[in-house]
Amino acid sequence: MLKAAIIGASGYTGFELMRLSVQHPHVELTSVSSEKFAGKKVGEVFPSLHDKIKIDFKSISEKKGVSKADFVFVALPHKEAMSVVPQLIKLGKKVIDLSADFRFNDPAIYENWYQKHTAPELLQDAVYGLSELYREKIKNAQLVANPGCYPTAVILALAPLIKNDLIDLNNIIADAKSGVSGAGRSVVLSSLFAEVNEGVKAYKVAKHQHSPEMEQELSLIAQKNVSLLFTPHLVPMNRGILATIYTTMSKEMSEDEVLNLYKNFYQNDIFVRICPLGTFPSTNQVKGSNYCDISITIDSRTNRLVVVSVIDNLLKGGSGQAVQNMNIMAGFNEELGINQPALFP
Amino acid sequence: MLKAAIIGASGYTGFELMRLSVQHPHVELTSVSSEKFAGKKVGEVFPSLHDKIKIDFKSISEKKGVSKADFVFVALPHKEAMSVVPQLIKLGKKVIDLSADFRFNDPAIYENWYQKHTAPELLQDAVYGLSELYREKIKNAQLVANPGCYPTAVILALAPLIKNDLIDLNNIIADAKSGVSGAGRSVVLSSLFAEVNEGVKAYKVAKHQHSPEMEQELSLIAQKNVSLLFTPHLVPMNRGILATIYTTMSKEMSEDEVLNLYKNFYQNDIFVRICPLGTFPSTNQVKGSNYCDISITIDSRTNRLVVVSVIDNLLKGGSGQAVQNMNIMAGFNEELGINQPALFP
Amino acid sequence: MLKAAIIGASGYTGFELMRLSVQHPHVELTSVSSEKFAGKKVGEVFPSLHDKIKIDFKSISEKKGVSKADFVFVALPHKEAMSVVPQLIKLGKKVIDLSADFRFNDPAIYENWYQKHTAPELLQDAVYGLSELYREKIKNAQLVANPGCYPTAVILALAPLIKNDLIDLNNIIADAKSGVSGAGRSVVLSSLFAEVNEGVKAYKVAKHQHSPEMEQELSLIAQKNVSLLFTPHLVPMNRGILATIYTTMSKEMSEDEVLNLYKNFYQNDIFVRICPLGTFPSTNQVKGSNYCDISITIDSRTNRLVVVSVIDNLLKGGSGQAVQNMNIMAGFNEELGINQPALFP
Amino acid sequence: MLKAAIIGASGYTGFELMRLSVQHPHVELTSVSSEKFAGKKVGEVFPSLHDKIKIDFKSISEKKGVSKADFVFVALPHKEAMSVVPQLIKLGKKVIDLSADFRFNDPAIYENWYQKHTAPELLQDAVYGLSELYREKIKNAQLVANPGCYPTAVILALAPLIKNDLIDLNNIIADAKSGVSGAGRSVVLSSLFAEVNEGVKAYKVAKHQHSPEMEQELSLIAQKNVSLLFTPHLVPMNRGILATIYTTMSKEMSEDEVLNLYKNFYQNDIFVRICPLGTFPSTNQVKGSNYCDISITIDSRTNRLVVVSVIDNLLKGGSGQAVQNMNIMAGFNEELGINQPALFP
């Protein structure tokens, strides 16, 4: 059994990591921490895990359970993450960090969109944990920076096009729609049920902090600068991200050709599925699963290629991909513990 | 009292017309028809209107109630509408048709996206009922073609930019998100609660029949050809459309300048409100109201101008605008009966 | 114009009072207060009221706007309400208080379920504002204690039976289901969208503070002690309460007889509607309206009479009834400003 | 591998059986049938099962796939089920039928609430598949009649009380709240999103066909007649049933004593969990899981015991319990393939 700890286990991604650990045949949790619920039984706070996890929540500062772990998942907000990760690295733990703190190669970009970076020395060795694109590097990483939810949906949707140099790199628009769990479990007015329900809204138009993360990764694929306009929206549902991505083709291709290119690109990636032409995915076909489903359409009238991708923001967009990365790092079958089909309806 | 009839009163837009008629101080319903519920009391089918409307549903073929009316709202599906409108016109009725049947100047475009047109002779005199843009023509129209819900949200958002020649007319993307009532009250699998709830999906990507309607109207404003890529999405909520529109600026302007331009453009239009810079509207701020709220953002990094507009698809996007048009045609105050603020939460 | 002030205008009932005031032909708001938003324009905080209410939020401690008002609505949490009401009474204002602070005749009961009462001298003259039952007293009241949302639904459902001595007074069960706005606008974990959505739960089983309020009022109707078991539930929707009430008949009657008894009891009450036998109301037929719809069923197998009532918790269960009471106190038509039919869907 | 077939696999319970089969380590599907989708790939109709189930839907009349199966799940509507089950029994298949057709011992009761029974000869040997109560009989059954969703929630909640003779058997009220998938996947107006969303309603008050099923089973436990008043409600969520059950105690007991009695009663039942005193379950703590969580409260003021139970109607209330029964029949660990914790949020 692989021994794992979760630091910050009472937010939505932390809780999801607990749920997935319970389902994983080779994982044993040695410690789960939560400042808010320290001292309480997991099952007392989350009745759905009653008897599934029998340990108590510990304070984040308590080190014992963590010290027994081989793998540590850090599910803290950014800034807090970089205050605990360096010590874990020193202790020789394998670390999968779900915050933004170790996703950027260049600390200046991080500092431009977030705040001062307090552990920039770790950035060089941190591996960006988009499993399909960095599988080989992840295998040997000590620190994996798990991607943001929106970047996962957008990068997977664009990688085949950019890798094959098929689109105008300065003319990409990503319009994404997210369920409310994407806003986290912070207790704020704007996340109250009656504020959010029965409404859809845009936010941080062209100013969301996931933009530079997408641009960094897409530029690495392109080997030149990619700029992208990104607009996130909030949709009244618990889970799910749908990204609608508008690109301008730089070559003429048929839908069939593009479809095949996607299928080939992801032929060894169990969690990426390409939809038949003319069908468009709903987030509810990936809800509760680790899949990313992608659909492509060419609008010959405007010479544009529209890509639609869907993920569950807490699974492929968060904790599911973290477990996928753990599987890769531990040499397990990549699907282990996360191969459930979606819960529908 | 203005005497009005509603043909097709048991769908969502038809029902909304009944609800609005009840609230209108100068409207008396002489007849409401529904094939499905003919012979039943309105309050029996829709308990919320119990004692508010005391007449029975009539068959659509029954002419008596209609013959007493001065105004007739036709809330039938397209194709059915054009089978009843010609006769109403001959009888001298003022007609507001909520279908697509009389929205196109060129029957060939209609026939390309819908079906054969059986009353093309009426197209020339039909006035496109986007109240803010065609107020003067609507005043004297006998037949008003009430706009589609998506076109209302998109055209209002783009008109000031196009009228002032500020954007690239071949580089417009409209990504719209609609509540489920937009799909109508047809009993189909894809509209069942458990199919739709907790999911968001794209549909008819780049192939929705509202595209040519938007292009026709935007081209008329531009006085040259406008082409636009339109993608609609379905969101799990009852009402509301949010359109996120991506344009490329052909002139350099500041956000303040654009904001003022919008404010001036709509300065006499009570139902169009421009949001302060940096704020983005939610559909829940217009739910149950006839407003269209518009927000603009410039992304200087990509030289794009993003416009976000929200409406209630059944009000400004349908029956509310129909009543607004009736008010204009009857010489009433444009707000009469439709000036309620949104229902929130 | 009647001059009115709202103290505590940024919660859901306070906001609803603003919305209703805008729609009321004879009301002018002189002041709206909110500690949280003091100094901000109403339209800045609530964009749906942009240009509808042009005054700013004031601090609750500021007295100027209130001093100009004839009527003051107090929409503060209990405890805070009784700290401001006594002064308003001294100033000669007519006060409609939406908290629980003045609903009890006996301060001991209040203190048993809430906290120490700091203005018990006002309890004697306060009138319980269930409009249909206390219309005459409300006419001349200076202080109206607006009923709780659950008590409104339950008392209206039971009054005809108890008044006519038809049921066992010690054998009443009220099982109520409420939308989330009933929990108020407090920023707490348990009201977050993702905590509440896609789940239904019971809370405060047999221990909710609305129980003694129901028992007080039902006992007054019965002229003897009534005891009732009340269980509230939280349902994932914005608005609405449905109460399912189980009683044991002490006389044999047919459903038709009971139906007629209800119709007679409420024959002069525009806002109470009795459903045809065999039909059961949904909260969505009263959403956004001030109606209470009631359905009765006799289960002859178990000799029980089941009453189902529905209201909008923010209208008939809160601010709508407050305006109804204001209409009664001001000598207006009882329906003024609150006679809209429900918003459906 | 156990070979299984599903007859009627495109409704919600049929689909859920496919999903669970995919997750079950010892099940191989030999055939899935659907009249509507015969000839189509499963993954084409349900994209979430793409590549998980590679066979096509067959017509129900096609026998080949079924003939290879050892176990057959019948997920047809009642009436249709009894037209296919007799032949399966003759062929020696083990059958788990999810309809109501084989749940009644007495065909007269079935015929009173449903329709004429066409295979009454099978009723005697059919075992009522409430796993916790009939485990021993299920082990050796050839035909298991899987319980209704409401009866599962209600019977599990009441069994310990009735078995121990603690309550008045003529004074039981069950008030249940169900998500919309409980209405099935039939395409009817009343199940449309916009009809159901944002509303809660009662239906079939005191007349629901699950009443006699509950009474039969509770009477068997009591060894005397139990009569119960049952009211179902529809709640705007996909999944989940919460039953609030009101009983009158015939003995005086403390909450602790009752709690222990429940814990003892279900001590060997992994899927039934008893909540700590003072806590009340939400359906979202069992969503996507096979658990039934039960909470008890004594209201000493009215001498009543209130039991609240929650299940996922498609799992413990349907397909999950069907797989649990299959595990029992096949001699597998009872939890196999259905031991996932709930999906939250």
Rounded mean pLDDT of chain A is: 97
CATH top level class name of the largest domain in chain A: Alpha Beta
Q: What low-confidence regions of chain A span 5 or more consecutive residues with pLDDT below 50?
A: none
Note the run of SSEs of chain A as H and E: EHEHEHEHEHEHEHEHEHEEHEEEH
What's the total number of strands of chain A? 14
Summed up, the helix count of chain A is: 11
| First-to-last CA distance of chain A | 34 Å
CATH architectural grouping of the largest domain in chain A: 2-Layer Sandwich
Instruction: From the 3D structure, determine the CATH topology of the largest domain in chain A.
Output: Dihydrodipicolinate Reductase, domain 2
What is the CATH superfamily classification of the largest domain in chain A? Dihydrodipicolinate Reductase, domain 2
Q: Approximately how much beta-strand content do the residues of chain A carry?
A: 15-25%
How many separate structural domains of chain A? 2
Radius of gyration computed on alpha carbons of chain A: 20 Å
Rough outline of chain A? globular
Q: Classify the oligomer.
A: homotetramer
Provide an overview of this structure.
Four copies of one chain form a homotetramer. With 345 residues, chain A is an alpha/beta fold. Chain A has two domains: 159 residues, Rossmann fold; 162 residues, Dihydrodipicolinate Reductase, domain 2 (2-Layer Sandwich). Chain A contains eleven helices and 14 strands. Chains in contact: A-B, A-C, A-D, B-C, B-D, C-D.
